[in-house]
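Bug #2210: token dump truncated for Alpha-L-glutamate ligase-related protein ATP-grasp domain-containing protein?
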Amino acid sequence: MKQMISDNTREYIFNSFNRIKLWANNQIYKHKIREISRQNPGCSAITDKNYLEHVKYWKAQGFKDVDRRWYLFYRNCSGIDDVRYVPENIYYNKIEPNLNNQYLSFGYADKNFYERRYNPDLFPETILRCINGIFYDRFYNKIDENDSHSILDDCGAEECVLKPTIDSGGGRGVQIARIDRGEIFDAQSRKISFNDRVHFYGGNFVIQHKIEQNEFFARFHSDSINTMKLYTYYSEHSDEAYVLKSVLRMGINNRFMDNQGAGGISCGICPDGRLNSFAYDKYGYTCCEHPNSKMSFEDKVVPNFSEAINVAKRIQNSNHHFRVLGIDMYVDRKGNTRILEINTKNNEINFHQLYGGSLFGDFTEEVIEISKKQVNRDRILWY
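Reproduced locally. Full output below:
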């Protein structure tokens, strides 16, 4: 009896927290689309009653809180009318948490273990790594502070990148630094101590050689690492992985980060590697050329894009706990396809739906069916 009461109490507490989290998330996405509409009034303009079909479609699938503004945003910006556009609140509250195992997402997304789980040649070369407060070399051999300085000294004088390895989406905490005579210095030439970085990154970070990107990407904006974001989906019905959407993200105004949250722009990539003729910022405003380099997007073809698709599919097929992934990729100066990050949760979907129609396309009803039968159902974790 005590066990039964205890189980019931735990269930009640869990459900109560979940309802609070769901409510809070809905408020976040309502505020987000309200801000988008304020910044770009044209994106939410109602020119016909087609939005009613969108609302009807999602309500027929069992979803109650269907905010028509997301449909209007995607349709008015892209010019493509698709009732299957996925509103952000439905995606993050109902779909992604049921497609992906949230309990494992942090562990699988830890950048320090990419080279253990996948082909090490797919990733930027690591100089040092810190895991749970302990330092290791690139091959996972434990080292002390003297060894760390010796490894840095062997690098000579060069730029490097420091980044957290856990929960680092959106480029949070990424820092460009300089190695010189076994020490690391920030952009203001201040020495960075290992103890400070251990504390700052919570004991989990990596130091890597700075990427040298392919000339094709650099000519749009050379100050940022301009990456491809490929959104993949594993279908249990066909037992195949698919690349559903792809965009090229570019930084602007000499900023190092390329994501839209940092002011970057995104240009859709067609399945054959051709770029769209225009790019979007986070509010849906378009440009036909990069605002700084004035490089046009039209008639540009991403080099070796077929290889990027093949790599993304292999990564998706090896992640059985995650039916959807957001894979950040780049091409190095030698033409090799590389991976920067594998996102297992909170994948940005706006830039994907601003071109080419709905996120899941013909897989939409399959995705909804899978989401409904998952054990999580209406639950999202408290984090």
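Output looks complete on our side. The radius of gyration is 22 Å. Marking as cannot-reproduce; reopen if the truncation happens again.
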